[in-house]
Amino acid sequence: MRQETIGNIVGNIRRRLEALREMTATPGEGVTRFPFTEEARQASEYLMGEMRAMGLAVRLDPSGSVIGRLEGERPETVMMGSHLDSVLHGGAYDGAAGVVCALEAARMLVEDGGQPCLSVEVIATNDEEGSRFRTGLFSGKFMLGQLSPDDLKRQHDADGVSVYDAMRQYGLDPEAAASPAREDLRAFLEVHIEQGPVLEAEELQIGAVSTIVGIRRARVVIGGRADHVGTMPMDMRQDALETAARVIAGLGDAARSLPNAVATVGNLTVEPNIMNIIPSRVAFTVDFRGVRRADIDAQYGGLLAALERETALMRTRYSIEELLDAAPVDMRPELRQAILASCARRGYAAREIVSGAGHDAQVFGARIPAAMIFVPSKGGRSHCPEEESSVEDLARASLVLRDLLNDILEGRAAL
Ligand code: HGY
Ligand code: MN
Ligand code: MN
């Protein structure tokens, strides 16, 4: 294995991140790159060009992911990468950093020459965030046969466009969701920014992820009745917003009572949203997370109990739609140890860390060995234009990823 320097890698990482940062629907206001949009197409074509230039066989897979493949002696595949989509007004590193680090590890593998014993793919996945259709982890679920064409018809964006139609408008065939799941994948490796304050606070350069939290997301609609705010007595009104407020108010303390659990209402709409009309309809999303399935389910159960209690009290009604249910997933211990061993050899300060963010690796990791390599986030900030990580840290992560890949390909890290 040729000795690569941080300096060689930093230039490529900086160049590609800067290019991808410009492929956004909100120039000057962070990165907004939703799935099946022109920004997604622009970024996909850019990455295909970069992959071709390093000699990878390039394709847009049925889920809209960009894949560059290096054929090995055997067709079984080690996949590495992250997501290409973003949140609204997000940062330039969430997802994209993992893609450009995987490109660097692949470049180094190609430049080492020879044919690896297993095939290797670099992937930029699609719709990991779920920001457009309120779902998420799309490419992994699509690839592993966990979505049906009917699911894609049911999921809509704020303009009422279904995933199904958005895929067709983008030039993809949503019916491919019914195709057999990929059976050739043997491992999934992902570099990602930490998106929290831990590594920076402890002056660490690398995090080896032990567990990715589970996530349960749902959309609640409270139905009430529009009436005059001045004449309808308090014990006769059907106030959808007061009902929602009473339900939402209890979610935070319920999460605080559980270890490593969080609860967030990130989206809320009120109708008719006029100050002198009693709200007749409120819709909001909930996002529950935890490292233990039981804690996530306890939060969800608490939500249902509060909805039953408060709608009965307030003479309103509710409906709830499950949007995502991803279990907590442990990363493969052997791969995590290989990451820490690489850091020790290279003199990088590193430790194990839990991921409070969800990632593509948790979909793949539920089926095949998976590993995640974290780099520090400046100020712990993410999902905002201020999101930033150092390209030197990303270059270090690329070298650790390459070591991990070589450990797998050369049989030192058991799958
Ligand atoms: O929501 C998350 O944790 C990730 O950013 N998709
Ligand atoms: Mn991400
Ligand atoms: Mn994200």
Overview of the molecule:
This protein is an alpha/beta fold and 415 residues long. The chain folds into two domains: 6-213 and 329-409, Zn peptidases (Aminopeptidase, 3-Layer(aba) Sandwich); 214-326, Alpha-Beta Plaits. Helices cover 36% and strands 23% of the residues. It is built from 13 helices and 13 strands. It has helices at 6-21, 38-53, 96-112, 138-143, 149-154, 163-170, 198-201, 240-248, 251-256, 293-314, 333-346, 360-365, 391-409; strands at 57-60, 66-70, 74-83, 118-125, 185-193, 206-212, 214-223, 262-271, 281-290, 317-326, 329-330, 350-355, 370-375. The strands form two sheets. Strands 1, 2, 3, 4, 5, 6, 11, 12 and 13 form a nine-stranded mixed β-sheet that branches. A four-stranded antiparallel β-sheet has the order 8-9-7-10. It is elongated and about 80 Å long. The two termini are 21 Å apart. (2S)-amino(hydroxy)ethanoic acid is lined by residues 128-129, 136, 357-358.
Summarize the SSE layout with pairings.
Layout: H1 6-21, H2 38-53, E1 57-60, E2 66-70, E3 74-83, H3 96-112, E4 118-125, H4 138-143, H5 149-154, H6 163-170, E5 185-193, H7 198-201, E6 206-212, E7 214-223, H8 240-248, H9 251-256, E8 262-271, E9 281-290, H10 293-314, E10 317-326, E11 329-330, H11 333-346, E12 350-355, H12 360-365, E13 370-375, H13 391-409
Parallel strand pairs: 3-4, 3-5, 5-13, 6-12
Antiparallel strand pairs: 1-2, 2-4, 6-11, 6-13, 7-9, 7-10, 8-9
One manganese (II) ion (MN) binds at residues 83, 94-95, 128, 192, 359.
